[in-house]
Write a structure and sequence with these properties.
Radius of gyration: 19 Å
Strand order of the largest sheet: 2-3-4-6-5
Structural class: alpha+beta
Shape: globular
Helix content: 25-40%
Number of helices: 4
Length: 206
């Protein structure tokens, strides 16, 4: 959905389209005295870089919504050289905890490495969305969390076209919804899955 905001000036009328999308914040960096640039993987536009003006000021309404690895709902304006964030709302659920935060961070850094340009990727977004909510909602013991991270990497590489999942491991690929993925059956296939992931990363040259 696109809404239209009309702003009047003394000399001319300027029209700004507001674009609405969900997104996962991959990374961010400070710019100038109070601004911040965000790299975000979005549902509608794929990877984008967006600027939040004055977000580092204490009075900023965006300040506490825009955090690395956060799932957010965004309103954006396309500027001449960069997107600009004008509104955001957190879509995250409960706090993940330190171990899950670390797993999520490593996985999103992989996504950050593999997706380098703008462009909508519906199948990749579906995979990222499913994996994120699986991590948020499922009860995972430490061993299961390690298997989750391995499968999340495998499935992301497959969704992006960097690898093919062997037939013997097909049940762990993107053809199986995350909620139906049998984490308790990963152990006998762990070496094979690890080899596929490592080979795909090697050949990606990233």
């Amino acid at each position: 959905m696109i809404s239209l905001l009309i702003l009047n000036s003394k000399s001319t009328n300027l029209s700004y389209q507001h674009y609405h999308t969900s997104g996962l914040i991959l990374s961010s960096r400070d710019v100038g005295e109070a601004d911040r640039l965000y790299d975000i993987f979005t549902e509608r536009f794929g990877r984008i870089t967006a600027l939040a003006k004055s977000v580092r000021q204490l009075k900023s309404k965006l300040r506490y919504q825009l955090r690395d690895w956060q799932l957010v709902k965004l309103s954006l304006v396309r500027g001449k050289n960069v997107w600009r964030i004008v509104y955001t709302e957190s879509r995250a659920g409960a706090t993940l905890g330190q171990e899950r935060e670390r797993v999520l961070g490593r996985w999103l850094k992989l996504l950050d490495r593999l997706v380098v340009d703008e462009g909508r990727r519906p199948s990749v977004w579906r995979e990222v969305w499913q994996a994120y909510f699986f991590l948020q909602t499922e009860s995972l013991a430490p061993a299961a969390l390690a298997d989750y991270e391995l499968l999340a990497s495998l499935r992301l590489l497959e969704a992006l076209g960097y690898c093919e999942v062997p037939r013997s491991c097909a049940i762990f690929g993107v053809g199986t919804p995350w909620l139906a993925t049998p984490l308790d059956q990963v152990s006998p296939h762990r070496d094979s899955i690890t080899a596929v992931v490592e080979e795909a990363l090697y050949h990606s040259h990233l």
